[in-house]
Amino acid sequence: MPGKILTRPNLSSIPLSTMGEFCFQTAKQFENRICHIDAITNQHETYFGFNQRSIRVALAMTKLGVVPQDVVVICSTITLDTPVPLVASFYIRAIVANLDPSLSVRQTSHLLSLVSPKIIFVEEASVNLIEKSLLEAKLETEVVVFGESEKYKTFSSLNQPQTNEHEFRPKSADVEETCILIFSSGSTGLPKAICHSHRSFLTASYNFYKSGSKFDTILSFSSFYWVSAMIFLVTSFIHGGRRILCGSTVKPKQLFHNIEKYKITFIFLAPVLTYGATNFPDYKNYDTSSLYTVLCGGTAISATQLRKVHTVFEHSDVIFAYGLTETGLLTLFDPTTDKELITRKIGCCGKVTFGCTLKCQIVDVETNEILGTNQKGEIRLKSSTMMKEYYRADSSQDFDEEGFLKTGDIGYYDEDECLYVVDRLKEMFKYLSWHIVPTAIENVLFEHPGVKEAIVFGLPKNEEEGEVPTASVVLEDGCRVTEKEIEEFVAGKVSDKEKLRGGVYFVKSIPRTPTGKVMRKKIRDDLIQSLEINKS
To answer: Domain range holding 120?
Structure first.
């Protein structure tokens, strides 16, 4: 069957405004509603209070010399304070970029070097991380601490009444101007900063808002490092909804308690987080009838596990979606129109969202031929939510000759134009829902004087964890070192998630193609086969 283009028209109701103008206007509109609640302390804040604090911090940042298109970085778990400098940056046309406190110094310093921030807002517990990272990146950046500090300015010192705050209005700008940088690994393996404009990100948020779910009360526990957390923030502003904040992690008992207490209507669970919920024996003791939608995505999840999620959250639509940091959500089911498909097509990623055009060119990776129904190939797409570019980096190689983004994901669509994603072309893999970039760990391995060659890949562990980082290593002649010593050497230089949990395996040579390219898949498959033989 010949290939075709899957497409859905744009929404017509998206406001043509900057993110600052949007947040300011909606905060005024819903000023008496609760904006967010800290589930740990039970403190809450209205949209009026949040807007007032954002204005004060915006004016304070201006006094510190922040000008339009300067980069402002936030490194913190999510609290009532965390989104204030984010929205304040929108108000003064600064560009926002976010880091996660669990990243290593090596990762953080690289990301900081990509964007050269003017100012960094950091939680008290992560000041040491930022100090070391700035030193390694050779950057001199203003540091502001959420909490107490004798060395740096504090967030509370910026959040003070300003004489002209009542007259404040957000700075106007071209809606195509970059306002958000979101870090992603990219298909080449090295992290990049993805540029989203006011238009692209507001469009992505409105598309999500119109997806048929109820966003009255969103449970939020990931940092703004993740694009999903940013979209949930903007989505809640659209209709004056509230977000329930519960730190960086949520245990199963807390999850069900919060759903019942705050009458949560929407949650997003990365597949790895669903296992805690489905393995929690007391889930029936909690009232989850308010929960309209459970959205899953980011990594693969089996149909078996999705059915378990359906069973635990019996009142909810459990939807598995597909999206990219470069675009936001691209395919998902609408619970108001696709009820039957949600239950019948377990494991499907849904249909294309508003403003998305998708080739299921799908594309044959060898011939570039556009494929048809139920034929697997690379997914390529265009979207009204597409990023502008990579910050200070060339992105031309990531698009084909027709302007479609080459996702590096393998998938197919069926006779109902529903998308399935089945594999990745990219060399990176995911462990506990986190992207692991092989080259980043390989660079650490090469710092060891005894390592001549090294290849890192993901070794399948189990459905919950995904793939664990594993290395095949060729030693220098005469080198006497053990696999355990190499593992410990790497562990001391990378984040916890990058540790070589799959082990280090010494080999005599690394197989390559006639053109000299490393045959990473063959190395991985040979090791898996060898381990299976040894088991038997």
So the answer is: 47-174
CA distances in angstroms from 134 to 123, 124, 223, 446, 460, listed in the order given: 15, 16, 20, 23, 35
pLDDT in tens, 261-308: 999 999 999 888 888 899 999 999 999 999 999 999 887 787 888 999
Is 342 inside any structural domain?
Answer: no
DSSP state letter for 147: S
459 inside domain: yes
In a domain, 389, yes or no: no
pTM: 0.87
Q: Are 498 and 436 in contact (CB under 8 A)?
A: yes
Q: What is the pLDDT of residues 411-453, one digit of tens each?
A: 889 999 999 987 777 677 889 888 787 878 988 998 899 998 8
- Residue 103 belongs to a domain: yes
C-alpha dist (Å) from residue 389 to 182, 381, 393, 405, 502: 11, 15, 8, 11, 35
Non-local CB neighbours of 281 within 8 Å, separated by 6+ positions: none
